[in-house]
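Structure (tokenized):
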């Protein structure tokens, strides 16, 4: 049995924390591969370096680079794992590009979707966990933990508001693929809710 499950949500929603904890629990019953783009795939890493540490760049160039890095990771890591019967849990995927580049940066969701659909070539996730937190809660968590900030974190509150708004629209248009988790609950409660949702999905396969 294989399944491709992605985790989405704004900064500080708990994607990395929850994915790790849920993977630990799932590992007892399933073959799990945890990953995030570019996920150790060399060309994907090199493309990604330009995005996170480089100078400001044209927004369409940025969107194309994310899509290119995504494809390298998909082909180099996700698809081989799925072919080996793994459950792949991936920290951010196409919906992040739609929400950030498409909606928040204003390139347009249909435009960013077009280049990403070219990149993923029908490999949509089977299931997407959306960790639902307000912009305020997400940002507060990041500030409290003083995590190293990358270029995207330095955007203003308005940008983050738009990211959340963008996600909501994307979910609205493709509701069947998403499970929305109230991620303002305690870490333990969010892990439990996410784990139960994934188990319920996998048991139906
Ligand atoms: N439900 C929760 N309640 C309280 N704190 C939480 C919760 N979930 C995560 N955190 C804390 O919030 C901080 C951010 O979490 P995390 O790094 O997992 O978010 P993220 O969604 O991966 O963010 P980013 O998009 O920036 O990678 C961490 O310090 C984490 O411990
Ligand atoms: Mg993270």
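Design, position by position:
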């Amino acid at each position: 049995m294989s399944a491709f499950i992605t985790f989405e949500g704004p900064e500080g929603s708990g994607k990395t924390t929850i994915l790790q904890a849920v993977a630990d629990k799932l590992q007892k019953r399933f073959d799990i591969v945890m990953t995030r783009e570019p996920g150790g795939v060399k060309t994907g890493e090199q493309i990604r370096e330009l995005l996170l540490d480089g100078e400001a760049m044209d927004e369409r160039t940025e969107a194309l680079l994310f899509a290119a890095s995504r494809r390298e990771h998909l082909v180099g890591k996700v698809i081989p794992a799925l072919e080996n019967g793994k459950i792949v849990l991936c920290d951010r995927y196409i919906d992040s590009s739609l929400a950030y580049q498409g909606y928040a940066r204003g390139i347009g969701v249909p435009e960013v979707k077009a280049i990403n659909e070219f990149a993923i070539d029908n490999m949509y996730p089977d299931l997407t966990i959306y960790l639902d937190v307000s912009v305020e809660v997400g940002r507060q968590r990041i500030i409290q933990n003083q995590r190293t900030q990358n270029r995207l974190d330095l955007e203003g509150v308005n940008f983050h508001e738009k990211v959340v708004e963008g996600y909501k629209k994307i979910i609205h248009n493709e509701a069947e693929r998403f499970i929305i988790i109230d991620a303002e609950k305690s870490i333990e409660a969010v892990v439990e809710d996410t784990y139960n949702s994934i188990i319920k999905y996998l048991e139906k396969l």
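Reviewer-requested clarification: The mean pLDDT is 93. Residues 9, 11-17, 141-142, 145, 183, 185-187, 190 surround adenosine-5'-triphosphate (ligand 1) (CB under 6 Å).
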